[in-house]
Amino acid sequence: MRTQTVISRESTPSVAVFGASGHTGRFVVTELLRRGFRPIPIGRDAARLAGFQARGINSRTANIDDPSSLDQALAGADAVINCAGPFLDTAEPLVAAALRARVHYLDVTAEQSSAVATFERFPTPARDAKIVVVPAMGFYGGFGYLLATAAMCNWPSADEIRIAIALNCWQPTQGTRLTGQRNTATRLVLRGGKLVPIGNPPASSWAFPEPFGLQDMKELPLTETILIGRHLRVSNLQTCINLAPLRDLHNPATPPPQAADATGRSAQRFLVDVIVRNGASTSHVFAQGRDIYAFTAPLVVEAVQRILNGAAQGVGVRTPGELFDAPDFLRSLAPEHITFEIEAGL
Q1: What is the Cα–Cα distance from 195 to 60, expressed in whole angstroms?
Q2: What three-state secondary structure class fits 275?
Q3: Exposure check for the chain: N or C terminus, fewer CB within 10 A?
């Protein structure tokens, strides 16, 4: 039975990256290399993986519809990060392959239906295999959830959590566009402590810190709703995003992300503002950074590193807040990747 691997000079953990040739996947491979891991890039098209071979990184091909190819691709890995959306198509077969190989699994899905399916289908098999399965460890989902968990200030419950996301623009990847076409399920919100269909929420506004200021907003629940609903005792949750990036997203003429520096990051800026209310008390957390796709790489790789170092609490299908100390996790990303502040118990 596989046990958790500890990073040492004698043992360099191998982390498979499914969808490595995609936009986010390339950032994840680079972040793994930066932290001293041995990445195993995996994809369906050998031609698209040729760039890794040119850098001296051995890659592997696999098809999500071919279990034996997935088994071969995960051979010798300690964990696998799934960066290939739509996750409604890729998560279930790749989690199944991770279970057969007894390797930890993480993905970066923003698709609520995919995250729900992972939580519902794999808790017992993952516990039996003694592996950790973490869905939605990306900017949309895991990041807002960790901020909300940090803002809870160890309160046992909260009346309300409000998560507001501001982007100065959104240049979507091809994967984002394909996921939007594939993911037609009704979005779920948390009302009265229960997940219910979103309905028709009213327009709203939010006063962000500069440089964003006052923004018109739209409620847009993603996988943070599923994570929070499984872990935190909260009656009502609202996640909203400013309208300007949504116009970019829905415009077919908007180009994909454009590199603005040698790392490949775009110039896009983000700010996430979280307010938790518990009776008359409120707690406020906000974080800001650059490029939601590039930022997903240190976020998910930090999680992998903690799991492989034995710093995660428990096995099975878990939320990030169950596995990690949220404030400590977020502080580990600052100031290199985000600026992060908590104003607790006001």
Answers
A1: 39
A2: strand
A3: N
pLDDT band at residue 184 using 50, 70 and 90 as cut-offs: confident
Does the pLDDT value for residue 8 go beyond 90?
Answer: no
Query: What mean pLDDT is predicted for residues 275-294?
Result: 96
CATH superfamily, with its number, for domain 139-292+331-343: Dihydrodipicolinate Reductase; domain 2 (3.30.360.10)
Provide the CATH number for the domain formed by 14-138+297-323 in this structure.
3.40.50.720
> For the chain, give me the number of helices (H) and strands (E)?
13, 16
pLDDT at position 9 over 80? no
- Bridge partner residues of 240 (DSSP): 164, 219
Q: What is the pLDDT of residues 232-266, one digit of tens each?
A: 999 999 999 999 999 999 999 999 999 999 999 99
Which token pair is 81? 């990060």
Contacts (Cβ under 8 Å, ≥6 apart) of 135: 87, 91, 106, 107, 109, 114, 115, 118, 119, 141, 223, 226, 317
Band (2; pLDDT cuts 50, 70, 90): very low
Domain assignments of the chain as residue spans, ordered by start: 14-138+297-323, 139-292+331-343
Whole-angstrom Cα distance, residue 17 to residue 254? 27
3-state helix, strand, coil in the chain (%, to 5): 35, 25, 40
Burial class for 239, CB neighbours closer than 10 Å (0-12, 13-18, 19+): buried
Mean pLDDT of 151-157: 91
DSSP state of 241: E
- Give the count of beta carbons closer than 10 Å to the beta carbon of residue 290: 18
Across all residues in the chain, what is the average pLDDT?
94
Does the pTM surpass 0.85? The reply is yes
Q: From its phi and psi, is residue 34 left (phi > 0), alpha (psi between -120 and 50) or beta? A: alpha
Which pLDDT score is estimated for 182? Answer: 85
Alpha helices in the chain (DSSP H): 23-34, 50-54, 67-74, 87-101, 112-121, 123-129, 144-151, 174-182, 223-231, 243-250, 292-308, 320-323, 326-332
322 by Cβ neighbours in 10 Å (0-12 / 13-18 / 19+) ranks as middle
